[in-house]
Amino acid sequence: MNTTSTSLLERLRHPAPADTDWRRLHDLYRPLIRAWLTRIPGLTREIDDLTQDVFVVVVRELPEFHRQRHGSFRAWLRQVTVNRVRAWRRTYRSVAPDDFRGADGYLSQLEDPASPLAHQWDREHDRHVFDRLLAAVRPDFTPPTWEAFRLFALGEGTATEVAEQTGLSVNAVIVAKSRVLKRLREEAADLID
C-alpha cells in the first residue's frame, strides 16, 4: 500500500477539494443512502431531496470530521442521515402526521450503534463499498484472471479445483488472486473506511 497517498476522505477535508473527489464520494454513497431512506416509514417522494440534503451536510461538515477508529465515517454518515430525516420530519409533520407512524422507532434503532439495525447498516455499507471496489478494478483484468480470482478468492473452490474449472495452472490461479487482491488494496486505500 502506498503510504504517501491521501485517502479520498483526507483530500475532501482540505480547503479546496477537487470536484472529481466530491463526485466520487457522491457516486459511492448515494445509492446506499437512498436505499436506506426508502426503508423509513413515511418517506416516499422526498427521498431524492433527503439524499441530497445528506450530501449538503456532508460537504459542509466533512472538514470537521476526524476519523477516530475503523468504521467511524460510516457511523457518522448514518447519524447524518438520521438527523436529516428528523429535521425534515419536524418541518413537514404538520402536513401529513399519519405518514410518519413507525418512523420514530425506526430512526431510534438506526441511531443506536448497538442496535441490530445499525449493525445491518454497517454490514450493508461494507458490502456496498466492497462491491463498488470490485466493479472498479474488474476492467483491469482479463476475463480468465477475474474468473480465477472470483472462484478462488471468494471461496468457490480450492486452487486445484479452480485450475481444473478454468483451464489455468494452479500457479496462475494463485497469481490471479494475488494480483486482484493487490489492486483491490490499492483502490481501497484511496477510499474512506
UniProtKB/TrEMBL annotation:
Domain annotation RNA polymerase sigma-70 region: ranges: 27-91
UniProt-listed InterPro entries: RNA_pol_sigma-70-like, RNA_pol_sigma-70_dom, RNA_pol_sigma70_r2, RNA_pol_sigma_r2, RNA_pol_sigma_r3/r4-like, WH-like_DNA-bd_sf
Pfam families the UniProt entry points to: Sigma70_r2
Keyword DNA-binding belongs to the record: yes
UniProt keyword list: DNA-binding, Sigma factor, Transcription, Transcription regulation
Similarity section: Belongs to the sigma-70 factor family. ECF subfamily.
PANTHER family in UniProt: RNA POLYMERASE ECF-TYPE SIGMA FACTO, RNA POLYMERASE SIGMA FACTOR HI_1459-RELATED
Protein name: Sigma-70 family RNA polymerase sigma factor
Organism the protein comes from: Gemmata palustris
